[in-house]
């Protein structure tokens, strides 16, 4: 079955609440692809080298992004680090920084400066709670074979920390980023309205078998079991507002993905096809009889692809830009290139929905 009922459908521009736009030549190659994916609002991750730990760092980065494409609303974040204090939080909020991203030390790209002990940051979380800044959590524990923790159960092992933080700071807005498991969906649903989760496009497609032999499907957190994928699909079309789109599009040079020089870089590049891939994933789920065609409505698409996230973050799209979905013969490019960089997108060479700007 296909979602042909949406061929020609007009929707508000999508908002992507988890993007990696990098810096330098990679930034110059990636930023122009944002609007290709039907997106005009992006929540920008701070894990550059060095990481963004001050409002001045974040605003300088925002200016570099705007020089590449000024027609995108860039929502900026800081990297949770020992340099972040309650005073930094309050000052950053005044200057327009929206959230602070927490990375457990060493679990993903550019996370070596990440968190080892969350209690150390309780004063920071209290300040964030008081001023309305959002805490974005990369929800994994570092691998610890003594505790039987690997990349396959790192997310589930983190969920008690999520619940503890919510109990300590019930008014703090928390996003469990890039959920990959049924347990994560259940944990977010069990928490109050200030806790939500983002879901990527690629996790709506992938299971463990896919990344085990394809580095271009390898990301952190890794895709899990078919039952986890189906739980994510159902969460995405639930209409509760507790889950919304965050692509976690993470470009890496093709040489870093092919391996042979140390560990394979973790990250899947979906930016040019964000909106399109979500439609394709829902179609596949209908074919697998995970959901029905009736469950994928215009209201659900509008909410998941931006409406729920905008409401949670308290932002409006003053541009009122619209996109049009259509089903043609478009095929995902084999790669995207820039000066000195080449990036391979997710599902390269496969057919895809198309998006145009109205």
TrEMBL record:
Taxonomic lineage: Eukaryota, Fungi, Dikarya, Ascomycota, Pezizomycotina
Organism: Hyaloscypha variabilis (strain UAMH 11265 / GT02V1 / F) (Meliniomyces variabilis)
Protein's UniProt keywords contain Metal-binding: yes
SUPFAM superfamilies in the record: Metallo-dependent hydrolases (SSF51556)
Pathway in which this enzyme or protein is active: Pyrimidine metabolism; UMP biosynthesis via de novo pathway; (S)-dihydroorotate from bicarbonate: step 3/3
Family named by the database record: Belongs to the metallo-dependent hydrolases superfamily. DHOase family. Class II DHOase subfamily.
GO biological process, one term: 'de novo' pyrimidine nucleobase biosynthetic process
Keyword terms, alphabetized: Hydrolase, Metal-binding, Pyrimidine biosynthesis, Zinc
Domain of life (superkingdom): Eukaryota
EC number(s) recorded for this UniProt protein: 3.5.2.3
Name by which UniProt lists this protein: dihydroorotase
């Amino acid at each position: 079955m296909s979602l042909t009922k949406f061929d020609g459908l007009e929707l508000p521009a999508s908002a992507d609440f988890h993007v990696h736009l990098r810096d330098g030549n990679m930034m110059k190659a990636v930023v122009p692809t944002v609007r290709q994916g039907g997106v005009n609002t992006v929540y920008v991750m701070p894990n550059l080298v060095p990481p963004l730990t001050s409002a001045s760092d974040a605003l300088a980065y925002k200016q570099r992004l705007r020089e590449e494409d000024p027609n995108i609303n860039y929502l900026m974040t800081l990297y949770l680090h020992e340099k972040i204090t309650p005073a930094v939080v309050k000052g950053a909020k005044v200057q327009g920084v929206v959230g602070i991203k927490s990375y457990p030390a060493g679990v993903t790209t550019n996370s070596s400066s990440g968190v080892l002990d969350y209690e150390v940051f309780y004063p920071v979380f209290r300040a964030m709670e008081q001023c309305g800044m959002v805490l974005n959590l990369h929800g994994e524990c570092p691998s610890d074979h003594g505790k039987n923790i690997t990349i396959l159960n790192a997310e589930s092992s983190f969920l008690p920390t999520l619940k503890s933080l919510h109990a300590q700071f019930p008014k703090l807005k928390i996003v469990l980023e890039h959920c990959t498991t049924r347990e994560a969906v259940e944990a977010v649903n069990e928490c109050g309205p200030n806790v939500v989760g983002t879901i990527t496009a690629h996790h709506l497609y992938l299971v463990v078998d896919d990344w085990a032999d394809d580095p271009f499907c390898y990301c952190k957190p890794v895709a899990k079991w078919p039952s986890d994928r189906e739980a994510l699909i159902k969460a995405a079309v639930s209409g509760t507002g507790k889950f919304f789109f965050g692509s976690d599009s993470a470009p890496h040079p093709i040489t870093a993905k092919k391996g042979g020089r140390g560990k394979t870089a973790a990250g899947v590049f979906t930016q040019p096809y964000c909106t399109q891939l979500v439609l394709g994933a829902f179609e596949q789920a209908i074919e697998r009889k995970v959901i029905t065609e009736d469950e994928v409505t215009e209201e659900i698409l509008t909410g998941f692809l931006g409406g729920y996230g905008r409401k949670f973050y308290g932002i409006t799209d003053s541009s009122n830009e619209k996109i049009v979905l259509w089903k043609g013969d478009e095929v995902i490019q084999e790669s995207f290139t820039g000066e000195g960089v080449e990036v391979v997108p997710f599902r390269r060479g496969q057919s895809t929905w198309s998006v145009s700007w109205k």
